Amino acid sequence: MTTASRPNQDVIRPDKDSALLAEENPFEAMMSRFDYAAQRLSLDPGLYKVLRAPEKQIIVSVPIVRDNGDVDVYTGYRVLYNTSRGPAKGGIRFDTAVTLDEVTALAAWMTWKCAVVNIPFGGAKGGVACDPFQLSNLELERITRRYTSAIIETLGPDSDVPAPDVNTNERVMAWIMDTYSMHKRHTVTAVVTGKPVEMGGSLGRREATGRGCMLVTREALKRLRMPVEGTRVAIQGFGNVGSVAAQLMENLGMRVVAVSDKSGGIYNPEGLRIRDILQHCRQRRFLSDYKDADHITNAELITLDCDVLVPAAMENVITSHNAKEIKARIICEGANGPTTANADKILEANGVFVIPDILANAGGVTVSYFEWVQDRAGYFWDEDTVNQRLERIMVEAFEEVASMAGRHGINLRIGAYMLAIERVAAVHRLRGMYA
Ligand code: GLU
C-alpha cells in the first residue's frame, strides 16, 4: 500500500473557540453575504426564499473493501444548489473536513461563481469525508467508483458535471468518467471536466484557476495604479492553484516572496525562485524541507509584509483574529471561502482591496465550460485559444464586478454577489414557477 504521510494541519486550522467556530460556519458565511446583497438588490421576497434553498442534497454511504480485507464505510455528498441557468457544475473533494453544510455552501458559491463569469451552468459540489493521504491508489479508486455509482442518477452532461477540487485530480476524473460510461454502455466524455487531455480534457484546464488569479490580480493592480513589476506576493497553498499562480505572477514580473503548503511556508524578501521550488515539489517533497529560503508558518504568511496576498488553500484562513494584522493591499482569493464575513468588515475598514473567491478563482470553472463545449462538439482548441478566451472572460467579469461595486458604493465581494444574484434571479423570473 502506498500512502503519503500528512503533516499536521494545525498551522492552517488552529484550535477554535466557539465564537470562531460560529464565524467559520461556511454556510452562514455564504448566507450573510447573500442576504446583504439580496437586500441591496431589493430582491422580491419569493425569489429570496427560492434562492436561499438548495435544490437537492444527496447523502450516500460509500462502503469499500480496504487493501487488508477490512470493510470501511465513508459518507459521500453531492449538493445541487441551483440549476436554473444550466447543468449543475462543481468539484468533488476528498477531505476529512467534508460535511453537508460545507458542501452546500460550496455548491451555492459555484452557483454565484458561474453567474459572475456568465457561463451557462448552475452550481453544485460534492465530497467524500475521508483522508486520501491514508488511502492507497486502489482504495481511492474504489471510493471514487462506488461514490460515482451511488450518485449516478444526478450525473450527466445535461444535468450535473463534476470536476476536481481539494485532493482530487485528473486521475479521479478519469475514474468517474469511466464508471459513468460503463453504466451508460457508451463513452460520455462531457460528464466530467478536468480530465486528462488524452481522454477529452482541455488544454489549459489544469492551469486555469491559477491563471485566472494572475489575470484578476493584474487588473486590480491596474485599477489601483500600482506597478506590476516588483510587486511583492505571498501565496498560501502550493497546490494546483497556488503553484500555477506563483509561476505566472513571477513570469509577469512580480516578486513572489513567500509560498506555503500544509507543512509550512518559505520566505525570501528578494523573491523566491518558483521554478526551483516546483522542481523540489515534483519529487513529492514538502516545502518544509526546501533549503534555499527562510522558514515561516502559515499563520505568519497571512500577515506578512507584502503587496498581494493569495490565500489558495482552504476556507477560513482570514478571520476576525488575524484580519487586522494583514499588511497586503490586495487579497486575491484563490481558495473558496478563505475570508470570514467578520474579517471582511475589518479588511474593508483598513482599505484592503479583496478580489472575492467567486471572481478570483472562477478561471477553473470557465475552462471547465470550454472543456464541456469541446467534448460536446468533438472539436478541440489549441492552448492559445483557450487562454485568450479565458482572459477575455476574466477581464470582463472583473470590470462588471468593479462597476457594480462602484455604482453601489460597496466592496467587490458584495458587487460580485449582486451581479450573480441578479443574473440567476433574471432567469427565474423568465422561467416562472412550475407548479
Ligand atoms: N473545483 C473548482 C472550483 O471550485 C472547479 C469547479 C469546476 O470546474 O466545475 O471552482
What does this structure look like?
The chain is an alpha/beta fold and 435 residues long. The protein has two domains: 196 residues, Rossmann fold, CATH 3.40.50; 153 residues, NAD(P)-binding Rossmann-like Domain (Rossmann fold, 3-Layer(aba) Sandwich). Helices cover 45% and strands 16% of the residues. It is built from 15 helices and twelve strands. A seven-stranded mixed β-sheet has the order 9-8-7-6-10-11-12, sandwiched between helices. Helix 11 links the parallel strand 11 and strand 12. Helix 7 packs across helix 8 and helix 14 crosses helix 15. It is globular, with a radius of gyration of 21 Å. It starts with 17 loop residues before the first helix and ends with a helix. The structure holds glutamic acid (GLU). The site of glutamic acid has 11 residues, from strand 3 and helix 13.
List strands and helices in order, with pairings:
Blueprint: H1 18-23, H2 26-40, H3 45-52, E1 56-65, E2 71-82, E3 88-94, H4 100-116, E4 122-129, H5 137-150, E5 160-164, H6 170-184, H7 205-223, E6 232-236, H8 240-252, E7 255-261, E8 264-267, H9 274-282, E9 294-296, H10 298-302, E10 308-311, E11 330-332, H11 341-349, E12 353-355, H12 357-360, H13 363-377, H14 383-408, H15 412-431
Parallel strand pairs: 3-4, 3-5, 6-7, 6-10, 10-11, 11-12
Antiparallel strand pairs: 1-2, 2-4, 7-8, 8-9
Helix pairs in contact: 2-4, 2-15, 4-15, 5-6, 7-8, 7-13, 7-14, 13-14, 14-15
Glutamic acid (GLU) is lined by residues 89-91, 163, 165, 193, 336, 361, 364-365, 368.
